[in-house]
Amino acid sequence: VRMKAQFELVKRTALDELSAVASKVDAPQLARLHAIWGIGQLIRQEKAEDSALVGLFGDPDPEVRAQSVKTVTDRYGRLLGLDLIPAPSGESHALAAPLIPMLEDPSQRVRIQVLLGLGRLRDTAATDAILNLLARKELVVSLTALRHAGTTALAGAATTDKLASLANHESLFVRTCASLALGRRNDPAVAAFLGDSDDVLAGDAARAIHDDWMIPDAVPALAAQLGNHLAHEGFTRRAINANHRIGTAEAARRVVALVAEEEAPVTLLEAGLESLAHWNRPLDLDLVTGQYRPLSERDPAVLAEALKPHLDTLLTAKLSKIRSAAMELATELKIPIANETLLAVFNNAEAEGPLRATALRSLAAQEAPGLDTLVTSALAEKDDSLQIAGLDLLAKSNSDKAVSEIVRRLESRSSVAVKQHAIRTLPAAQATDMMRALFSDLGAGKIEPALQLDVFEAAKDPVFAGQAEFADTILSLETAWQSAAATDPLAPFRLALEGGDPVHGKSVLLNHPAAQCTACHRIGDGAGSSVGPNLKDVGKRKDRLYLLQSLVDPQSVIAPGFGNLALTMKDETSIAGQFLGEKDGKVSLRDAEGKEITVDAGEIKERTPVISTMPPMGFILQKNEIRDVVAFLATLKGGKDKGVDH
Fold it and tell me: From the CA atom positions of the chain, what is the Rg in Å?
């Protein structure tokens, strides 16, 4: 009723009536406020002057004072949203004079509205009075409403030079408001606050420069601050990314030095490593905000030169991720590493196996002396990565000894991964006789299931192309599998039942561009879709044979609720939807609108087979990829478990 009365009086341009209610001290407060808002409507329609509300600035009711200030200044700028605030206009405003004294109002709510109003007016004459209020000792940055109002006031009223000079002000509250004000204006001068003694304030300045619209002219200043404010994660992440975006030699040196010094928290060291990993080929999405901010590819020599002075330190760092990343970067960038350093890495029994294996491969590439001894040492290690590296190198240098080592591993309790790699090493070792023996065992069913696919694929290697018996047997097997597929669709794929790599399988499931598994499935509450069944506990509910069948012959194992069925009823009506199940003579479906429908099976004239929308993966994935996906799915046991980690 009050709102309707307000709008009706505005419609009648009843300024006198509205003013009478607004100025009546003993009238109900809510009635007075509606009158103030009505006068504000008339002012915006240019049917009343600002002075109609200025007279209420001295009212005894603080809410009347606050609403009068808010209403009369509101039309001069919409500065409370996320839009950038323009700098002061350089012109004086008639409302500034009556508003400035109100900064001393006893009511904080009134003072907040005055600050916001002065920010809208953009009159520099108010700057000193604003600062006097913000410099009060009792003000702390946790007073968020007042901080926002102070920021808006300074952003609208203070010049850039004035705001930048406040970087040395003794009041943290003033410095905070000044920094935020420059950020609201997207002004490069905000860089003056990056070196503040307060980590949070410096972090706010970093956000102003780095996030949202970004301030390109201030990014170099942020980049130069890398190493300061390490206790503030947000600051350091943005400083790392500022260097990443600049991409200069000096920027690369800063990020490398941060990682090499290992003084920052582990999460920030990892952020530095991520930046270096993508330095030469930056991602299109920003490493901090995720915004689309593409960068061009860079000259690898820049990063290589930055890494060289720190490489020994990085390769012997305390954090294993640093050691591994340094080795990967050195290998990618073809940076020569001193044999002594590589030898120290290889001989470090505390280092992770893959790192030591990479060091061994680098020593081999550099033809380091004593390599035979190192290879022998690697083959004696328990770590799979070292044994695999040793087999690869031995196959190139001494095929007879390599065959002996392969046999030893196949006859021992070596891991499946090592045995599989040993078999895949046979072509490099040109071990025709051993390949012939293994292939014969495959045909006789003597090869353990986890190795069967590896034997078959190794026999197809071009190295053995001249072996007629291999080609004949391969053709015979493939022909038999294809013939059997008419009644047993799994026949060509049974070699992929055991022995998969779950880590690689997870990568295939999540990332394969053609299979696009996550277009229909998800694991628990992870990324993906609900078009198909959730896979969170499929390894607990189903065995490997079912998993393999669901991949290569999805029509034969359709989960309830995920196949499509079309029914033609005896009355000639049609029903189609997701098949939910059939029980006690009733068929249940879910239609396109999500409505569950149950019909009597006796009333059905015709029905289509239940159809799965999932394509057979045998036409999309290689057999080894299918094997890996089966292995990964078998690890999904439900709960919070999302399978193996990368």
Answer: 37
Cα gap 155→88, rounded to integer Å: 8
563-569 vs 604-607, strand pairing mode: antiparallel
Name which of 567, 540, 556 is nearest 634 in CA terms. Answer: 540
In degrees, rounded to 5, the angle at the alpha carbon of residue 444 between the alpha carbons of residues 442 and 447 is 40
Q: Who's near 582: CB < 8 A, 6+ residues apart?
A: 588, 601
Q: Tokens in use for 364?
A: 């081999």
Q: Residue 639: which residues within 8 A CB-CB, separation 6 or more? A: 536, 537
Amino acid at 171: S
Phi, psi for 447 (deg, rounded to 5): -90, 135
Contacts of 107 (CB under 8 A, 6+ apart): 62, 65, 66
Nearest alpha carbon to residue 437 among 470, 389, 395, 475: 470
Pull the structure tokens for residue 91. 């012109």
pLDDT per residue over 123-169, tens digit each? Answer: 999 999 999 999 999 999 999 999 999 999 999 999 999 999 999 99
Whether 517 and 535 have beta carbons less than 8 Å apart is answered as: no
How many C-beta atoms lie closer than 10 Å to residue 345's C-beta? 23
> Which tokens belong to 576?
């189609």
222: exposed, middle or buried (Cβ count in 10 Å: 0-12, 13-18, 19+): buried
The residue-averaged pLDDT of 509-515 equals 91
* β-strands 586-590, 574-583 pairing: antiparallel
Half-sphere exposure of 349 (CA within 13 A, CB side): 4
Q: Where are the alpha helices (DSSP H) in 262-338?
A: 266-277, 300-307, 311-315, 320-332
Rounded Cα gap, residues 69 and 76, in angstroms: 12
Cα(592)–Cα(586) distance, integer angstroms: 20
* CB neighbours of residue 59 within 10 Å: 18
Residue 404 corresponds to which tokens in the numbers above?
A: 């002996």
Cα–Cα distance for residue pair 317/611, rounded to 1 Å: 56
For residue range 65-123, list pLDDT tens digits in order: 999 999 999 988 764 455 788 888 788 999 999 999 999 999 999 999 999 999 999 99
Q: Which two tokens stand for residue 117?
A: 């109003």
Give yes or no for residue 415 having a pLDDT over 90.
yes
* Residue-wise pLDDT tens digits, 568-609: 999 999 998 888 888 899 998 888 787 889 999 999 999 888
What domains sit in the chain, N to C, each tagged with a CATH number?
2-248 (1.25.10.10), 563-609 (2.30.30.100)
**How much is the pTM?**
0.76
**Winning range, highest mean pLDDT, from 33-42, 427-436, 476-485, 565-574:** 33-42
